[in-house]
Amino acid sequence: MNNDALDRLRGALLGEVLRPADAGYDTARRVYNAMIDKRPAAIARCLGTADVVQAIRFAREEGLLIAVRGGGHSVAGHGTCDGGLVIDLSRMRGVHVDPVRRTVRVQGGALLADVDRETQLHGLAIPTGQMSETGIAGLTLNGGVGMMLHKYGLTCDNLLSADMVTVDGELVTASADSHPELFWALRGGGGNFGVVTSFEFRAHPVGPTMLAGFLAHPVDQAEEVLAFLRDFSATSPAHLSADALFIHAPAADFVPEAFHGVPLITLFVRYFGPMEEAWEAVRPLREYGGPLYDSIGPMPLVAVQSMLDTFTPAGNLHYWTSEFLPRMGTEEIAVLAAIGSDLPSSLTTVNIHPFDTAATDVPPDATAFAHREDSWLIHVICQWKDEADSDRCRTWVKNVGTMLKTFGSGNTYLNTTSEDDDTDRVRAFWNDHRLARLSEVKAQYDPHNVLRFNHNIPPASGEAS
Ligand SMILES: Cc1cc2nc3c(=O)[nH]c(=O)nc-3n(C[C@H](O)[C@H](O)[C@H](O)COP(=O)(O)OP(=O)(O)OC[C@H]3O[C@@H](n4cnc5c(N)ncnc54)[C@H](O)[C@@H]3O)c2cc1C
């Protein structure tokens, strides 16, 4: 790398530029998944859009590939790279709420907790994910699945516009009226098209207090619990979210001590509609099967949104897969119960999420997010601490992935899929027709595939390298 050019970049940025010899480089290059150990040539820690423009122009002049880091939570490690420039937005976490229009402007490096913190001051919320430290950028660009999915759809379904810096350093705003093809592609096509410095979302009146908690059942009753959840979900109100979660119960304050470390199937219940309806809405779930413990109670939305953080502290090793199952029949339930009763580490969880109503009411071609069929989304979240367990844990995930594919629709959820998961499946998610359209957008905004650390869409011209 040209040192003069690097010095000029350092002078041009409000933020800092870190090279391997610099103090702080080793901390800055780390991402959430400790399996990912990459060494970028430099990390540009941007403080605003002008910094992003400068960093991109520098990378292009120096012929460097670019990785874009938002929250750094990609389990596939897409927020970093070996040898290229990381454009790190982790210091661009501003959130501005317009309570009158019920819109929220969020910078590209914000975490979900940053969003909830500001929106909840106004009794508003954006549908996002289930853990507070995930980045809004990566989550939105590939979909965004969380507790409000049944009522308000995916995170990307609530996107109104996005400000993006192209790989030529140009500024564009994508919305229904401006660069509409790009706007379509940004809602499900991932980080393929440019660096999004700010998102504008529609917000909804939710919180600040809601009803939530866990209902725990013995893992050997998993088949009955899943059958109950399936039947209950068919008619449950859209303000109610109930997922099944296979866990070893953590030593958290919402788990009675007698159950710490015990393998369980839990129902993670959240009701975010009017409080006066809440207890009645969750009553059938609480009455089912005499739970081992019932931690449901009123609590702030921001507390609910960080409840699962206990399960996923930073610094662990991760390998994940996911699958959409078109139905939850007896065979699927038996397989899921077998998988959930055989977790390879006490940190591993399997999440079974009904995927329907608002998320599937969106017409299939309205956004680039391709899966709009009523189904069940299975996240297999395998994590462990000791590298000696890596082969065993990855093998377990791959075997589980094969079992799930037998029943699957062929679709995986790209945000919860690890890097070397089958590339054909990644492409199949978009299908040929949608992929061709995405490739045209890619060709328009990134014809030389400078942004390739993502679930990559080749530019239509075929200039992939
Ligand atoms: C603990 C944990 C919990 C999770 N929970 C959920 C959940 O509840 N629901 C859900 O849907 N997903 C969930 N995910 C998956 C999550 O959505 C993805 O990992 C997502 O990629 C994270 O986004 P990020 O910005 O943190 O990632 P990063 O690693 O920073 O980036 C990931 C990808 O997004 C691109 N990108 C990031 N920022 C930008 C930007 N500003 N402009 C353009 N491209 C950008 C990158 O280039 C890269 O391709 C979870 C992941 C983890 C690790």
TrEMBL record:
Cofactor(s) this protein cannot do without: FAD
GO MF annotation: an example: FAD binding
Domain FAD-binding PCMH-type intervals: 36-206
Keyword list, A-Z: FAD, Flavoprotein, Oxidoreductase
Pfam families: BBE, FAD_binding_4
Keyword Ion transport: no
The organism's place on the tree of life at top rank: Bacteria
Family per record: Belongs to the oxygen-dependent FAD-linked oxidoreductase family.
PANTHER family: BINDING OXIDOREDUCTASE, PUTATIVE (AFU_ORTHOLOGUE AFUA_1G17690)-RELATED, FAD-BINDING PCMH-TYPE DOMAIN-CONTAINING PROTEIN
This protein's name: FAD-binding PCMH-type domain-containing protein
Organism: Streptomyces curacoi
